[in-house]
């Protein structure tokens, strides 16, 4: 070897290899953990889809009893098909902003008082934005009716606080979400269920053909606009995370082999024996 020959690459020091090993182990463990989490999420999502599908097919049941309300979790009731009777508290109707297959507008939320005095909020359906003032002003005159209303629909969990970057404003009559507790407090309702009811069952025709639906002229409010759809890409995400974990492991093997070759070359090189 001449004086102009470059010195062979030397292997990394022990502490450098230790750092690389720790980083690789952390990445591998992290990616594997995320993959396992996505597998668990997939199992949860499949169970949710099966549970909701069964509830939609079931005949309507009564509301959960008021004594059960404090301990209810969304998984216990959401999308359950129910029926309930009571009197509309028309003057306490509120409108919450909505985007549906029929376009932009509002949900009509009216309290329904049951025989035992408890109240459940009912989303009676969608109205176009142009009808907002009509529905906010009209209910007062019709609040004296003693007619018993019967409602069938799906139980839904509350939507607290508001919409994206928008907070509910009860004083200004601006509601961006169906926040049961906030609406009940604003209207000074008696004991109110912690969920609300979407009146009607999902209308597959409207969601399958939104262009035809948007041309609809009523009747208002329009029921059946509940969207029952759950994305389930967890298997793809899980495979992605597991793939990244395998890439980290493979990279570790390649680095180890490369370092081994460098050490062998360094030990066999004259430079490696210089004092």
Give the total of beta strands.
8
Helix-strand string: HHEEEEHEEEHEHHH
**What would you call the shape?**
elongated
User: What share of residues are in beta strands?
Assistant: 15-25%
Unreliable spans are: 140-144
Largest sheet: 5 strands, mixed, barrel
Quote the distance from N terminus to C terminus. Answer: 17 Å
Radius of gyration: 31 Å
The total of helices stands at 7
Strand order of the largest sheet: 1-3-4-8-5
Approximate helicity band:
25-40%
**Structural category:** alpha+beta
What's the average pLDDT?
83
Overall description:
- By secondary structure, this protein is an alpha+beta fold.
- Helix 1 (14-57) packs antiparallel against helix 7.
- Mean pLDDT is 83; it is low at 140-144.
- 39% of the residues lie in helices and 21% in strands.
How is the secondary structure organized here?
Blueprint: H1 14-57, H2 74-77, E1 81-88, E2 94-100, E3 103-113, E4 119-128, H3 132-137, E5 149-157, E6 162-163, E7 166-167, H4 180-187, E8 192-199, H5 204-208, H6 210-214, H7 234-268
Parallel strand pairs: 4-8
Antiparallel strand pairs: 1-3, 1-5, 2-3, 3-4, 5-8, 6-7
Helix pairs in contact: 1-7
Features:
single chain, about 280 residues, about 40% helix
Q: Quick gist of this model?
A:
The protein is an alpha+beta fold. 39% of the residues lie in helices and 21% in strands. Mean pLDDT is 83; it is low at 140-144.
């Amino acid at each position: 070897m001449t004086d102009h020959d470059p010195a062979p690459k030397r292997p990394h020091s022990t502490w450098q290899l230790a750092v690389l090993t720790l980083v690789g182990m952390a990445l591998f463990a992290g990616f594997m953990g995320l993959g396992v989490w996505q597998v668990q999420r997939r199992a949860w999502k499949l169970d949710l889809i099966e549970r909701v599908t069964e509830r939609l097919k079931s005949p309507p049941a009564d509301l959960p009893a008021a004594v059960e309300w404090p301990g209810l979790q969304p998984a216990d009731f959401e999308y359950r098909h129910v029926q309930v009777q009571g009197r509309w508290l028309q003057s306490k109707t509120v409108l919450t902003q909505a985007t549906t297959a029929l376009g932009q507008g509002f949900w009509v939320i009216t309290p329904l008082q049951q025989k035992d005095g408890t109240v459940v909020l009912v989303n009676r359906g969608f109205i176009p934005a142009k009808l907002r003032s009509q529905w906010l002003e009209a209910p007062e005159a019709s609040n004296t009716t003693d007619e018993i209303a019967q409602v069938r629909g799906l139980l839904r969990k509350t939507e607290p606080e508001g919409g994206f970057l928008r907070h509910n404003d009860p004083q200004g009559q601006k509601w961006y979400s169906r926040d049961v507790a906030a609406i009940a407090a604003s209207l000074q309702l008696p004991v109110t269920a912690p969920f609300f009811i979407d009146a009607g069952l999902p209308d597959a025709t409207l969601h399958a053909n939104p262009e035809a639906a948007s041309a609809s002229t009523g009747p208002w409010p329009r029921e059946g606009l509940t969207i029952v759809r759950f994305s389930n890409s967890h298997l793809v995400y899980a495979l992605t995370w597991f793939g990244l974990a395998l890439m980290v492991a493979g990279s570790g093997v390649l680095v180890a082999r490369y370092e081994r070759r460098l050490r062998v070359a360094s030990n066999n090189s004259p430079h490696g024996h210089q004092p």
